[in-house]
Automatic annotation (TrEMBL), chain A:
Keyword terms, alphabetized: ATP-binding, Nucleotide-binding, Transport
GO MF terms held by the record: ATP binding; ATP hydrolysis activity
Record family assignment: Belongs to the ABC transporter superfamily.
Protein name: Taurine ABC transporter
Pfam families: ABC_tran
Automatic annotation (TrEMBL), chain B:
Record-given protein name: Taurine ABC transporter permease
Record InterPro entries: MetI-like, MetI-like_sf
Biological classification of the source: Bacteria, Pseudomonadati, Pseudomonadota, Alphaproteobacteria, Rhodospirillales
Location within or outside the cell: Cell membrane
ABC transmembrane type-1 domain boundaries: 69-249
Signal peptide: none
UniProt entry keywords in alphabetical sequence: Cell membrane, Membrane, Transmembrane, Transmembrane helix, Transport
Membrane topology: Multi-pass membrane protein
A GO CC annotation given for this chain: plasma membrane
GO biological process, one term: cellular response to sulfur starvation
Family statement: Belongs to the binding-protein-dependent transport system permease family.
C-alpha cells in the first residue's frame, strides 16, 4: 500500500529560535501512514501530538524536516484533508444542514448536489430529523456528529482528528467511536486520530503510535491486530485486554528507558 | 442560587420591577402631598399629568407634543443611521487592517472621550444653526463608540473558527463573509446599543443649538420660565423614549443574532 502521509525528520520549535532557545515541540519526528489506514497518535498532553496534526493540516510549517502528502510537501491547508477539532466549531448562524454544507458552499458545488450529499451524511450520523435545528440547541455529542458529517461530506482522502471526543462523557464517546468506525468502514479514508486515551486508540486504530514529551518523538509504534468490524463487545474481550496490557507494558518500559536516558544526560 | 430559584426570580422579575416603579411614584406623590418640597422644586405627579394632558391638547409653544417627540426621535435616528453606515464599515476595516488602525486610531482615541459640548461653537460655524448641526452633534457622539466597538468585534473571531475556514480552503473574501463578519455581529450589536445610549444623552446638547422644537429644547425652554412641571414631563418623555429605543435594539438583536451568548 502506498504512503499517504509522511513526516520526515520533522523538528518544530516555538518561540525564539536563536542560540538553541525556544520550546522544542518535536525533534526528528518521523512517521509514515499508509493509505486507507486508521492511525491513532497517543500521548500525554503537551507531547506535541496536536503539533503533528497541525503540521499535516498545514496550519503550521515545520522548523526542520518535511511533511508530505502523496509525496508532495504540504504548503498550507487544503480541501484534500478534512478536519475534526476537539470543539465542534459549528457556526451558530447556520442550522444543522447548512453547517454540514459549509465545505460544498465554499467550494461552489451546485446546490442540489450539496443538499443531497448533506442529507446522506446526516442520515449516516443519525441526524436526519435535526437538519433544520439551530446548532446551539444540540447536545455536545450531536454537535460533534454534525462536525463529523461536515468533515466527511467532501469525501477528503485524508481525515485529521484532534481529540474529537475528548470533551464528551464516556457513554456518548463510545457511541461516537462506533459511529466513526461504521462510517470509516464504508469510506476507508486515511485517518490520523489524536488522543490521550489508550482504550480509544486501541479500539479505533490499525496502528497506535505512542509519543513521548519534550521533545516530542515516537516512543512506540504498535500494530493493533483486533479484527474488524469492531463493536462495543470487543472492549471487554480477552483479546482487547491482552492488547491493552501489552501496550501499557511497552509504554511503561519505553518511558522508563527514555527517562533513564534523560537522567544519564545529567538531569 | 439553585437553577429553580433563578428561574422563579426570572419569572418574578417584571412584577418586581413594576412594583418598584409604583412604590417610587407613590413616594413622589406622598412627598408632594405632605409638602416636603415646594411645587416649584418638586411638582406632584398629578400636576405633571395635568400638564401632560393639557399639552396633548394645546401643544407646547404652538407645536403639538407628539411633534416634539417625533422631531427629537427623527434627529437621533438620522444621526444613528449615519453613525452606523459610517462607523461599522470603518470600525471593521480598522479591526482587520493594522495599518488602517494605526492611521486612524489617534484621531478616534482623541475624539471619543472628548466632551461633545465643546464642539458646539465649531459646529455652528461649520454647519450653521439648522437641522444639520444638531444631527451632526448626535452623530459625532455616537460614531466613535460604534467605530471602537466594531473594530474590537472584528478582532474577536476565535482562532478555531479561522482554522476551520482555512481547512475548508476559504478564500480571503470567503473568510470575511462566512466567518469574520457573522462572528462579529453579536459584539457589534452590543456596542451599537451602548453607542445609542451615549448619542441619546447628547440630544439636549444638540437641541441647545438654536432649536424651536424637540424634547431637549422643551426642557431647556421650560426651565427658563421656571415651569418645573414641564421640565419633569420632558425628562420623563426623554427617558421613556430612550428606553423604548433600547428595547427596539435589543429586540432586533434577538431576531438577528439569536445565538448571542448561547454558544
Amino acid at each position: 500500500m502506498s504512503v499517504k502521509i509522511a513526516f520526515e525528520e520533522v523538528t518544530q520549535v516555538y518561540g525564539d529560535t536563536g542560540k538553541g532557545g525556544g520550546t522544542r515541540a518535536l525533534e526528528h519526528f518521523s512517521l509514515e501512514i499508509a493509505e486507507r489506514n486508521f492511525v491513532c497518535l497517543l500521548g500525554p498532553s503537551g507531547c506535541g501530538k496536536s503539533t503533528v496534526l497541525n503540521l499535516a493540516a498545514g496550519f503550521e510549517k515545520p522548523s526542520g524536516g518535511s511533511v508530505l502528502i502523496d509525496g508532495k510537501t504540504v504548503t498550507g491547508p487544503g480541501r484534500d484533508r478534512g478536519m475534526v477539532f476537539q470543539e465542534p466549531l459549528l457556526l451558530p448562524w447556520r442550522n444543522v444542514i447548512e453547517n454540514v454544507m459549509l465545505g460544498p458552499c465554499l467550494a461552489g458545488w451546485p446546490k442540489v448536489e450539496a443538499l443531497a450529499q448533506a442529507r446522506h451524511y446526516l442520515r449516516l450520523t443519525g441526524l436526519e430529523r435535526f437538519e433544520r435545528h439551530a446548532s446551539y440547541e444540540l447536545s455536545g455529542g450531536m454537535r460533534q456528529r454534525v462536525a463529523l458529517a461536515r468533515a466527511w461530506i467532501g469525501e477528503p482522502p485524508v481525515l485529521l482528528m484532534d481529540e474529537p471526543f475528548g470533551a464528551l462523557d464516556a457513554q456518548t464517546r463510545l457511541v461516537m467511536q462506533e459511529l466513526l468506525l461504521e462510517i470509516w468502514e464504508q469510506t476507508r479514508t486515511t485517518v490520523l486520530f489524536v488522543t490521550h486515551d489508550v482504550d480509544e486508540a486501541l479500539f479505533l486504530g490499525d496502528r497506535v503510535v505512542v509519543m513521548s514529551a519534550s521533545p516530542g518523538r515516537v516512543l512506540l509504534d504498535l500494530a493493533v491486530d483486533l479484527p474488524r468490524p469492531r463493536t462495543e463487545e470487543i472492549l471487554t474481550s480477552p483479546r482487547f485486554a491482552d492488547a491493552k496490557r501489552r501496550c501499557l507494558r511497552l509504554i511503561g518500559e519505553e518511558s522508563r528507558r527514555a527517562f533513564g536516558h534523560l537522567e544519564g544526560d545529567g538531569i | 442560587m439553585s437553577t429553580a430559584s433563578v428561574a422563579r426570580s426570572a419569572r418574578l422579575g417584571p412584577l418586581i420591577s413594576i412594583a418598584s416603579v409604583a412604590a417610587f411614584v407613590l413616594l413622589w406623590y406622598e412627598a408632594a402631598r405632605l409638602g416636603w418640597a415646594s411645587s416649584l422644586i418638586l411638582p406632584a405627579p398629578g400636576e405633571v399629568l395635568d400638564t401632560a394632558l393639557q399639552m396633548l391638547n394645546d401643544g407646547y409653544r404652538h407645536v403639538p407634543l407628539w411633534q416634539h417627540v417625533a422631531i427629537s426621535l427623527g434627529r437621533a435616528l438620522a444621526a444613528f443611521a449615519a453613525a452606523l453606515v459610517v462607523g461599522i464599515p470603518l470600525g471593521l476595516a480598522m479591526g482587520l487592517s493594522p495599518i488602517l488602525s494605526s492611521i486612524l486610531d489617534p484621531f478616534v482615541q482623541f475624539l471619543r472621550p472628548l466632551p461633545k459640548l465643546a464642539l458646539i461653537p465649531l459646529v455652528i460655524v461649520w454647519l450653521g444653526i439648522g437641522e444639520s448641526s444638531k444631527i451632526f452633534l448626535i452623530f459625532v457622539s455616537t460614531l466613535f463608540s460604534v467605530i471602537v466597538g466594531a473594530a474590537a468585534a472584528a478582532g474577536s473571531v476565535k482562532v478555531g473558527r479561522l482554522r476551520l475556514a482555512r481547512a475548508f480552503g476559504a478564500t480571503r473574501r470567503q473568510q470575511l463573509w462566512y466567518f469574520v463578519l457573522p462572528s462579529a455581529l453579536p459584539e457589534i450589536f452590543t456596542s451599537v446599543r451602548l453607542a445609542f445610549g451615549v448619542g441619546w444623552t447628547t440630544l439636549i446638547a444638540a437641541e441647545m443649538v438654536a432649536a424651536d422644537s424637540g424634547m431637549g429644547w422643551m426642557v431647556i425652554n421650560a426651565s427658563s420660565y421656571m415651569r418645573t412641571d414641564i421640565v419633569m414631563l420632558g425628562i420623563l418623555l426623554l427617558g421613556v423614549t430612550g428606553y423604548l429605543l433600547d428595547l427596539a435594539v435589543v429586540g432586533l438583536q434577538r431576531a438577528v443574532v439569536p445565538w448571542a451568548g448561547r454558544e
